[in-house]
Amino acid sequence: MHGHTFWVLGMGNTDEGPYQGQALETITPIERDTASVNPNSWLYIRVRMTNPGAWAFHSHIEWHLSNGLYIIFVSAPEMVRARLGTLPTLPSCPL
After folding, report:
1. Residue 36, Cβ neighbours under 10 Å: how many?
2. According to the model, what pLDDT value does residue 82 have?
3. Which PROSITE patterns does UniProt cross-reference here (predicted)?
């Protein structure tokens, strides 16, 4: 995740499938700025969004990006909007 660090609370094993309520490490989780996700698995993270802006959360596998497998998180949208305004030709985000 660009612009922030996060804590890894848990991760699944290869071919485990989606998160199904497995126990999470909430007392002493590892703080990271990158993480790998096992194939057909899951990664459970906690992020404190303290850096205003639009930040990418994505894989570095090219076909993932070209197929839309990425997310943009907007941290502190009010601060971003106050500083940069909105583009008059685009609809504003309802956040």
Report:
1. 9
2. 86
3. MULTICOPPER_OXIDASE1
Contacts for 95 with CB less than 8 Å, ≥ 6 apart? 74, 77
pTM confidence score: 0.73
- For residue 38, which of 17, 66, 58 has the smallest C-alpha distance? 17
| Residue 33: closest CA among 53, 48, 13 | 48
Strand order in the sheet with 30-32: 30-32, 6-11, 43-47
Cα three-residue angle 46-48-49, rounded to 5 degrees: 125
What would the mean pLDDT of 61-87 be, rounded to a whole number?
A: 83
Residues 6+ apart with CB under 8 A from 56: 1, 2, 70, 71, 72
Token readout for 91 is 């609809």
Q: Give start and end residues of each alpha helix (H) in 1-95.
A: 62-66, 77-84
Domain boundaries, the chain: 6-84
